[in-house]
C-alpha cells in the first residue's frame, strides 16, 4: 500500500475548513509525516491513521504552520507508552528544535528523538525506498521531499516458465528473484522468463516554495506531485513576494515534468471554503489536478498491474 492522507491543507493560518500543513504517508504499514502543523494529532485520530507506526517526521521548514503540531503529538505518543525512537528530519536547525522540544514544560519523553539535519541533495536510504531532500525557494531555509521507491523485479511470464518445464512453486520464486534454476539437466535463466526491472512509485511534496528547478527535475514522471498552491493568478505579485506558488504555476510545472497527478495544497485562507478559482486556473494547463481537502485520502498504485 502507498496511501497519502492530507491532514492539513491550509496555507499559513488554520481556518474552520483547513488545518495547517501536514501529510501522512502510509507505505506498507510504515507511517511518515511530512510537516506537522497545529492540530495534526487530532487529524490523525479523525483519519484513523494510527500513531504507533510513525517512524519519521520530515519538516520542510521551520515556519510555525508546519511544525506547531509536533510538541503535542510527541507528548501524546509518550503518554501512550511509545519507546521506539522517532526520527525528525529537516533543514539545519532540526537539532536545536529537538532540544527545545525535549525541554518544553515538565514532561519527560519516554522515547528518544533522533534529529537529522538534511541539505539539498541528501538521500535518506531505507530498505525499499529513499527520501531525497530537494532545494526549494522560500523565505527561510527550506526543503521539499521526494519519496522514490526502488526498482522492482520485472513481470514474470508464468506461461513461458511452464512451457520451459518449470513447475509452479519454489522454482518460480527463485527465477523471479533473478536466480537460475535447473530442470531435467537444463539450465533456465531468470532473464528467459522475467521481463525488465520496473520502476517503483514516486511522490514529490514541495512544502512552501516558488516553482523551482529541483522540484521540476525530481518530479519527472512522478506518480503524484503535491505542490504549494497558495494563491490564484491575480495574486501573482504577492506569490512572488511571499515566496509561494499560484495554482497556475504549479500546473505549469506538473505539465513540464509530465507527472501523472497533481494535488494542490497550502491553500490560502481567502480560498479556504471555495478553491474553485485555483482549480479552474490549474485545469486550463494540466488536466489531472485536484485541490486537496483535509482528511482526503489518495492511494498511489503501481502504473502497471502486478
Ligand atoms: Zn506554510
Ligand atoms: Zn512557509
Describe the structure.
One of its GO terms (molecular function) is 3'-tRNA processing endoribonuclease activity. Homodimer. It is a single chain. Helix 7 (213-219) crosses helix 9 (247-257) and helix 9 (247-257) packs parallel to helix 10 (276-283). The chain is α/β, with parallel strands linked by helices. A hairpin with a 2-residue loop joins strand 2 (22-27) and strand 3 (30-36). The two termini are 13 Å apart. It has 10 helices and 16 strands. Helices cover 25% and strands 25% of the residues. It folds into 2 domains: 2-151 and 200-299, Metallo-beta-lactamase, Chain A, CATH 3.60.15.10; 158-193, no CATH class. It has a 7-stranded mixed sheet with strand order 6-5-4-3-2-1-16, with helices on one face. A 7-stranded mixed sheet has the order 7-8-9-12-13-14-15. The protein binds zinc ion (ZN) (2 copies). One zinc ion binds next to loops.
Amino acid at each position: 500500500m502507498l496511501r497519502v492522507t492530507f491532514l492539513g491543507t491550509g496555507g499559513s493560518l488554520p481556518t474552520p475548513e483547513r488545518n495547517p500543513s501536514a501529510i501522512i504517508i502510509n507505505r506498507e504499514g510504515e507511517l511518515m509525516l511530512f510537516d506537522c502543523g497545529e492540530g495534526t494529532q487530532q487529524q490523525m485520530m479523525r483519519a484513523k491513521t494510527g500513531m504507533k507506526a510513525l517512524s519519521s517526521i520530515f519538516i520542510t521548514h521551520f515556519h510555525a504552520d508546519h511544525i506547531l503540531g509536533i510538541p503535542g503529538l510527541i507528548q501524546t505518543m509518550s503518554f501512550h507508552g511509545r519507546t521506539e525512537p522517532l526520527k525528525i528530519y529537516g533543514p539545519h536547525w532540526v537539532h536545536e528544535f529537538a532540544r527545545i522540544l525535549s525541554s518544553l514544560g515538565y514532561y519527560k519523553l519516554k522515547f528518544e528523538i533522533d534529529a537529522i539535519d538534511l541539505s539539498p541533495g541528501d538521500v535518506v536510504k531505507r530498505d525499499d525506498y529513499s527520501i531525497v531532500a530537494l532545494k526549494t525557494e522560500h523565505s527561510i531555509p527550506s526543503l521539499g521531499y521526494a519519496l522514490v521507491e526502488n526498482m522492482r523485479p520485472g513481470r514474470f511470464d508464468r506461461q513461458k516458465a511452464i512451457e520451459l518445464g518449470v513447475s509452479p512453486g519454489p522454482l518460480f520464486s527463485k527465477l523471479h528473484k533473478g536466480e537460475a534454476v535447473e530442470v531435467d539437466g537444463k539450465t533456465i535463466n531468470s532473464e528467459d522468463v522475467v521481463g525488465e526491472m520496473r520502476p517503483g512509485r514516486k511522490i514529490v511534496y514541495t512544502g512552501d516554495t516558488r516553482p523551482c528547478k529541483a522540484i521540476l527535475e525530481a518530479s519527472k514522471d512522478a506518480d503524484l506531485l503535491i505542490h504549494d498552491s497558495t494563491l490564484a493568478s491575480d495574486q501573482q505579485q504577492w506569490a512572488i513576494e511571499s515566496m509561494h506558488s499560484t495554482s497556475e504555476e504549479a500546473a505549469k510545472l506538473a505539465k513540464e515534468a509530465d507527472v501523472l497527478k497533481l494535488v494542490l495544497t497550502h491553500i490560502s485562507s481567502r480560498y479556504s471554503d471555495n478553491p474553485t478559482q485555483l482549480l479552474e486556473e490549474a485545469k486550463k494547463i494540466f488536466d489531472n489536478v485536484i485541490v486537496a481537502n483535509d482528511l482526503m485520502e489518495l492511494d498511489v498504485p503501481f502504473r502497471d498491474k502486478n
